Amino acid sequence: MTTSIIALEKDLFFSVKIRDTLRHHAMEATIARTLAAFEQGLNATPAPTLAIVDIATIGVDWEAAIRAARARQLPVLAFGSHMDLEARTRALKAGAHKVVANSKFSTDMPGLINRLRDTVTKQGVSNAVEDEEDSEFD
Asked: Is the pTM here over 0.85, yes or no?
């Protein structure tokens, strides 16, 4: 079974990396470069089962994207610069389940997604909390 994922990522090269990496792990990523496209992707068929948000995205309201995904009961994996603790805090406040550094996301993308899905399956999407094991922001 293929996992359908919606991702907010403006960077074309990194979008390809996300799509290609996940495809090798039976996950299909739809990449959105704008908030409107992300929201449209949330309503796609088949419906996504998880959202990924780049919190370093400039010119896009990524906090609104996180809130929109959470409003649809989707688990949210966010990533950004390990130096930007303010963005990490804002992402968690907006509803992201897990926020990791770019380096962690790049090296363990499928693992992060699988662990988040497992956590949500066990705890429920509303109760799932970030696992500090994967955080590199400290």
From this structure: yes
Average pLDDT over residues 35-50: 95
DSSP state of 47: P
pLDDT at 38: 98
- Cα separation, 138 vs 136, in Å, equals 6
Residue 122, domain extent: 3-130
What CATH number does the domain containing 96 carry? 3.40.50.2300
The total number of structural domains in the chain stands at 1
How many angstroms separate the CA atoms of 60 and 106, rounded? Answer: 21
Residues 24-38 as b or e (16 or more Cβ within 10 Å = b): eeebebbbbbebebb
Question: Residue 61's pLDDT is what?
Answer: 97
Residue 137 resides in a domain: no
